[in-house]
Amino acid sequence: MSPHVEWATGRALGRAVNFTWSDQPVLKGSLRAEFYWEGPVGTGAQIASALRGWEHLRYEVTEDPSSLADGGRWMHTPDLGVFFAQTDSVGNTVIPEDRIRYAMEIAGSNALELHRELRLALGQAWDDELEAFRHAGEGNPVAWLHKVG
After folding, report:
1. How far apart are CA 128 and CA 74, in angstroms?
2. Cα–Cα distance, 33 to 23 (Å, whole number)
3. Which InterPro entries match (predicted)?
4. Beta-strand runs (E) in the chain
């Protein structure tokens, strides 16, 4: 499966890529990789879309903001599917006004429901599930795919 993930990522980037794979101690028999990339605005979405076909993969793709566009973060787990969030210049998740208004409307005066809706809007369930995989191994956090530069 590893070569297929590299090929899909390479197609999105328009060049061949090779990841450095290591054992993923959180899930016996699986591998993990971290890969830093650079590309035009929208490449993060292309990478996430290319990886979407393998529903059993866990991955995280982040695209830093630029002077032309906001950043983005795509997270995927087999149980939850894909989550996307816009990010600001320091990596915070940005929740659009309409999404906050929707959460308020759904929750009404129920504070617990508002809390649940905001956690959903922040992608908390994806973060919770991926956290163990990020910090597995030698104590180094893992962001599976991340744009720098």
Report:
1. 14
2. 9
3. DUF3145
4. 22-23, 31-32, 35-37, 59-63, 71-77, 81-87, 93-94, 145-147
Q: 67-73 contacts: CB < 8 A, separation 24 or more?
A: 68/41, 69/41, 69/42, 70/94, 72/44, 72/45, 73/44, 73/123
| Amino acid in position 104 | M
Task: Measure CA of the first residue to CA of the last residue in the chain; give whole Å.
Answer: 29
d(CA 107, CA 113): 5
Per residue in 54-113, pLDDT tens?
Answer: 888 999 999 998 888 889 999 999 999 999 999 998 889 999 999 999 999 999 999 999
Please give the DSSP secondary-structure letter assigned to residue 75.
E
**Model pTM?**
0.83
